[in-house]
């Protein structure tokens, strides 16, 4: 695995992304969509793991318009306060523009195959859903995405494949919101929802307060099979 920081040029300006590529040569590309803590070690480790699986993983700095190069953890109250402040200032629409630029770059990556997927967590889980709705990615995976019910009407635009991992005890996505998601998406042939009834938000974040190794392994195993089936 090799990694580097790359620059993405967009009509609104330049922003950076962490890129990890497989040693084996070419592979499908995956755009990794951050949590509210920026492109931190958790996100970089996810990219590195995807590269070890044979993918070109690219994680764009989606907070660059607010504050470039955010890299914080979930280990202190001050960092949580900053993360929620950034989340409050984040503009979904401009973020999706940056994701679309990243998807386009990933599709043209010198080590890519032309196929592109997306995977996101928390805020990135919502963005993965919207990436499936608004871009031409072949596959997208969202872990415990927030605020998805607000955008359910867009699901009719999904032409690729989408998988959502839903935490049953998610403190940010209550049971009513989860029901709305199921009611709106269960009959969509492009979408698969997996429920983890006993889990709280961020159950797959290694080292997090709600990390559950068994549930995380199950979700990650499902994700690997899903990506393999749809982008190779």
Automatic annotation (TrEMBL):
Residues 15-230 form the Dienelactone hydrolase domain. Its EC number is 3.1.-.-. Keywords: Hydrolase, Ligase. It is an enzyme of class 3 (hydrolase). It holds the Pfam family DLH. InterPro entries: AB_hydrolase_fold, Dienelactn_hydro, Dienelactone_hydrolase-like. Transmembrane segments: none annotated. One of its GO terms (molecular function) is hydrolase activity. It comes from the Bacteria. This is Dienelactone hydrolase family protein. It comes from Hyphobacterium lacteum.
């Amino acid at each position: 695995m090799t990694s580097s920081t790359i620059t993405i040029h967009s009509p609104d300006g330049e922003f950076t992304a962490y890129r990890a590529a497989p040693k084996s040569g070419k592979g499908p590309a995956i755009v990794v969509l951050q949590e509210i803590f920026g492109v931190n070690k958790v996100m970089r480790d996810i990219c590195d793991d995807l590269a070890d699986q044979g993918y070109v993983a690219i994680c764009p700095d989606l907070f660059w318009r607010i504050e470039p190069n955010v890299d914080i953890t979930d280990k202190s109250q001050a960092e949580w306060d900053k993360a929620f402040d950034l989340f409050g200032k984040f503009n979904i629409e401009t973020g999706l523009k940056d994701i679309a630029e990243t998807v386009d770059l990933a599709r043209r990556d010198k080590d890519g195959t032309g196929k592109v997927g997306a995977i996101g967590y928390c805020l990135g889980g919502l963005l993965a859903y919207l990436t499936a709705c608004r871009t031409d990615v072949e596959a997208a995976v969202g872990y415990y995405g927030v605020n998805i019910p607000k955008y359910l009407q867009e699901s009719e635009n999904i032409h690729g494949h989408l998988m959502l991992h839903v935490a049953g005890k998610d403190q940010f996505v209550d049971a009513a919101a989860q029901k709305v998601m199921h009611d709106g998406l269960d009959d969509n042939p492009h979408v698969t929802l997996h429920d983890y009834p006993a889990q709280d938000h961020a159950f797959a974040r290694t080292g997090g307060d709600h990390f559950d190794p068994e549930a995380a392994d199950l979700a990650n195993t499902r994700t690997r099979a899903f990506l393999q089936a749809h982008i190779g």
